[in-house]
Amino acid sequence: MRVVVALGGNALLQRGQELNAENQRENIRVAAAELARVHQHHQLVIAHGNGPQVGLLALMDAHYTAVDPYPLDVLGAETVGMIGYMIEQELGNIIPYEDHIVTVLTQVLVDPQDPAFEKPTKPVGPVYEQQQARRLELEKGWAMAADGDYFRRVVPSPLPQQIIEISAIRLLVEHGVVVICAGGGGIPTAYDKDRKLYGVEAVIDKDLASGLLAKSLDAEKFVMLTDVPHVFVDYGGSHQRPVKAAHPAALMTLDFAAGSMGPKVQGACRFVQETGGQSAIGQLSDLTAIMEGTAGTLICKEVDGIVYGA
Q1: What are 202-223's pLDDT values in tens digits?
Q2: How far apart are the first and last CA of the chain?
Q3: Architecture per CATH, 2-113+160-219
């Protein structure tokens, strides 16, 4: 079975952890152990987030004033190389030596007229206390939004339209290569009037891009890993309930947070509706059980309505 697994931010950096190389490598080592089990039985394609990493590079970049700050598409490409390298090495240390892993810098086409450019919503970078957030708004002109008890920078998040390197990715997968691609939602690009590609100052939602990747590769299963065991209705509220399984049409009638679970649910439902395959959302430590259908939230057309857990 061909499986696309999208690693959430917790696979690289747990909430509240210092964003240093040692922490990221240790978290990736844990993720690699789970991914290796999937690789034993399936064709594996790996996508991942990069929000904290892009935000850190942007902060570091802003402190070096000898040159203009690098745009988000270039910073995104830098993080894809860094994260891909760590995943390649840690996963490669577990799976058989003769198995191949490769990271593909993935350009993802967006529409420059997408309304998202008028309303930044995508969180990137570390979390800040309110006073820090307000200072950064004034100093750097950043848009900031609440993230629980903290704040994060938000940037435009246009919808992914097409994966430029999809033919090369498909060729690698068909030859048994584990491919790491569409990192951070891919590098946002657009065509100019002369049909030339250029980078776009934005961040594509990784879950929507990963869903497009899974569809484009004819994957049979699309798994999104996060830091909660299920999709929850009324998450954190007095009526919180876990969703064990759902039909995509039924799940899309519910409201989920736009900055966290919303894009995951949207990406999962879109994949199932458009391909007839299965999708699942759950936590990294449950990946083996998610693949077996005994953990996480399963989204498929065979489910009638929504099945809640206790």
Answers
A1: 999 999 999 999 999 999 999 9
A2: 31
A3: 3-Layer(aba) Sandwich (3.40)
Whether 9 is catalytic is yes
Longest dimension (CA), the chain: 60
Q: In Å, how far from its chain's centre is CA 307?
A: 26
* pLDDT on residue 198: 97
For the question of residue 215 being annotated catalytic, the response is no
Q: How far apart are CA 231 and CA 245, in angstroms?
A: 9
Catalytic residue selected from 10, 55, 84, 259: 10
Q: What pLDDT, on the 0 to 100 scale, is given for residue 11?
A: 67
pLDDT tens for each residue of 95-154:
999 999 999 999 999 999 999 998 888 877 777 889 989 998 898 788 899 887 888 888
Instruction: Name the region of 117 (left: φ>0; alpha: ψ -120 to 50; beta: rest).
Output: alpha
Q: Which two three-digit tokens encode residue 276?
A: 């007839």
Sign of CA dihedral 21, 26, 28, 29: positive
29's enclosing H/E stretch is helix 21-41
DSSP code at position 120: -
Among residues 49, 51, 55, 206, the one annotated as catalytic is: 206
Is 122 an active-site residue? yes
**Residue 109, helix vs strand vs coil:** strand
